[in-house]
Amino acid sequence: MLIARLIADPATLETRLNAAIAALEADGIRIAEAVMLDFCSDVLQLMLPGDDEAALRRALDAHFPECDGLIARDLIQVPQVFVSDMDSTMIGQECIDELADFAGLKPQIAAITERAMQGELDFAAALRERVGLLEGLDEAAISTCLADRIQPMDGARTLVATLKHRGCKAVLVTGGFHHFADPVAADLGFERVVANRLAVSEGRLAGGLVGGITDSSVKAAVLEEEAAALGDDAITLATGDGANDIPMLQAATYGVSYRAKPKARAAANGWIDRGDLTAILKLLDIPERDWVAR
Description:
The protein is of the alpha/beta class.
C-alpha cells in the first residue's frame, strides 16, 4: 500500500486529481481512496494498492506542479529524529556566499556553490576551493555576516519546536561551518550540530579546514547513527535542498526536499515547492492548533 499526501492549489485540485487518476489508471493502477485529511483541511490523502512509487511520482509531478507532497509505504507517523541541512533549508542563505561578499568574491564563490549543489562538482573539492579563496578574511566578518544577513527560513522555528514538543530529537548537519551552524542551531532549537570547522590564525581565516569534511556520506551516517540509537523501527525525517543531501534524504523514512535542486527533489520521497517549512507539519497531519510557535 502506498500513501501520498498533497497540498496544492484548491482552485484546480479536483481537475488535477482527475487527470492524475486517469494517468495512474493508464498504468494499471487504481486509487483506493482519495480524501481530505479532516474538515477544512488543505491536505489531500491518496491510498493506492501495490508499491509502484515511481508511477505514482510521475503522475503527481505531471499533474500537480507547485505542490507540497509526501509519499510513504506505510502509515505516516510523527518522526522520532529530525536531521536537517542548514543553508537554503533552515536558513534562507548560503553562508559561504554571504561571507564571500565581505571579501569581494561573492559572484565567484556563489557560482562554485551553485554547481556543487546541482551535483556538478565534487563537494569536498569545491568546499576546499571556496574556503581557500577566503584566506586572510578577518574572522570578525563572520559575526557581522551572522547578525546582518543570516535569517531563518519561514516556518523553521515552528517546525523544530513542534517536532521537539512531540518527542522528536532535532539535529542540524551541514556542509557549512560551526561558526554559523552553532548559533543558528541555538536559535532554532536543534540539539546537536555536525559541521565543518574553519581554520583561523591570528584572527583571520587561514584558507583551510580543521578536521574532516561534513559531506554527503557524513550527513547520511549521522541520520543512521541517530536512528540506530532508537532501534530498528525508528521513524526519521530529513530535509535538504542540494546534491550533498541526497544520501541523507534517501536514508530517511521521510526525506523531504525543500525548494530543492532537481537531483535532490527527484531523490526525495517528499517535497516542499509551494509552502514554507510548516507544510511538513501539515503533511505529518499535525493540526495547526497543536503547533508550537516560536
